[in-house]
Amino acid sequence: MEKLQLWLLVLTGLSGAVAQSDLYGQVFVFPKESADAHVILNMKNSGPLQTFTVCLRYFTDLTRPYSLFSYNTRARDNEILLFKEKPGELSLSVGGEAVIFKVPENKGTSTGWEHVCASWESATGIAELWMNGSPLPRKGLKKGYSVSNQGVLVLGQEQDTPGGRFDAKQSFVGEIADVYMWDRATPIAAMQAANDDSQLPPSIVGWGSLQYQIKGYVVLKPMLA
């Protein structure tokens, strides 16, 4: 735990001041393709992860590959990565290994915003993906693995090293909101609540008390839809 706190202090010293805000009704706007625009999120103190759930909302018209959620450590690339491979496909990586989920075309919403939740547990290796409150067929990867707690969490870019080595052609262009992460496999009711923007259980990353650092051309704005 002390090592994690020291790592976060070092990261803060290198990257600048950390803001903490209730971002309800706000979004991070990533206005253009870039090799440096990103947002660093701080996680609340947690040990190595045996389970996790990540939920977020995004709005984009990109058709090329892009990163939605990237968590990297000094020891391993793509410790956790939620990545849009192409229209109709989302991948979840754990410990550098990926599974691909096929997303039916009718899973979209009338506003253009998409809500995704990804969950994984070490004991079984089962990975789940929910799109707009509906589950997709479950996959399996990295059974018995433990996710390191000494990493860097980034929105808007896919990391090849912690906090760096970004590729503009994998950058996110659009809007991201309502980012949450839990250190457990979140019950179905909680995933549906996240999609409905309802009351949520305590989290290690929470939109209502988010600690973040904006780097490059990223703008915090009210949600339009």
UniProtKB/TrEMBL annotation:
Protein name per its UniProtKB record: Pentraxin family member
TM stretches of this protein: none
One term of GO molecular function: complement component C1q complex binding
Protein family according to the UniProt entry: Belongs to the pentraxin family.
Span of domain Pentraxin (PTX): 24-225
Keyword Calcium found: yes
InterPro entries cross-referenced by the UniProt entry: ConA-like_dom_sf, Pentaxin_CS, Pentraxin_domain, PTX_dom
Species the sequence originates in: Chrysemys picta bellii (Western painted turtle)
GO BP annotations listed: acute-phase response; innate immune response
Gene3D superfamilies associated with the record: 2.60.120.200
Subunit structure: Homopentamer. Pentaxin (or pentraxin) have a discoid arrangement of 5 non-covalently bound subunits.
Keywords: Acute phase, Calcium, Disulfide bond, Metal-binding, Secreted, Signal
Lineage top rank: taxon: Eukaryota
Family annotation (PROSITE patterns): PTX_1, PTX_2
